[in-house]
């Protein structure tokens, strides 16, 4: 589980990250990363729309995304906001593929290659 300081909760923070953040389109997700310009902890937010599935599927997908964020957090630089938008078809993807895609998306959207 992500700690409260590592979660994006306000709608305005979601909006600004999606609007001004760098985008990495993946097969099963879209990753947006925006730098905040400070050294505060990195925050993650997740968007899982009704297009992904019914409420049970959406909540399971959100839990999987939070777990990926929790695993990637220690190796990721501070001072950034990250939004992961799940795409339709993502619930059927294995854990390793989902983890790998999001990790790749974070690298692509921060310009680290």
TrEMBL record:
Q: Which key words are in the record?
A: Endonuclease, Hydrolase, Nuclease, RNA-binding, tRNA processing
Query: What are this entry's molecular-function GO terms?
Result: 3'-tRNA processing endoribonuclease activity; ribonuclease P activity; tRNA binding
Q: What processes in GO biological process is this protein linked to?
A: tRNA 5'-leader removal
SUPFAM superfamilies linked: Ribosomal protein S5 domain 2-like (SSF54211)
**What is the role of this chain?**
RNaseP catalyzes the removal of the 5'-leader sequence from pre-tRNA to produce the mature 5'-terminus. It can also cleave other RNA substrates such as 4.5S RNA. The protein component plays an auxiliary but essential role in vivo by binding to the 5'-leader sequence and broadening the substrate specificity of the ribozyme.
Q: Which HAMAP family match?
A: RNase_P
Q: What is this protein called?
A: Ribonuclease P protein component
User: What organism is this sequence from?
Assistant: Galbitalea soli
């Amino acid at each position: 589980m992500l700690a409260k300081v590592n979660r994006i909760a306000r709608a305005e923070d979601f909006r600004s990250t999606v609007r001004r953040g760098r985008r990495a389109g993946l097969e099963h997700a879209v990753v947006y990363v925006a730098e905040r310009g400070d050294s505060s902890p990195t925050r993650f937010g997740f968007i899982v729309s009704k297009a992904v599935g019914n409420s049970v599927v959406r909540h399971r997908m959100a839990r999987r995304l939070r777990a990926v964020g929790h695993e990637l957090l220690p190796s990721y630089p501070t001072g950034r906001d990250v939004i992961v938008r799940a795409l339709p078809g993502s619930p059927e993807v294995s854990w390793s593929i989902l983890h790998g895609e999001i990790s790749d998306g974070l690298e692509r959207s921060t310009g680290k290659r």
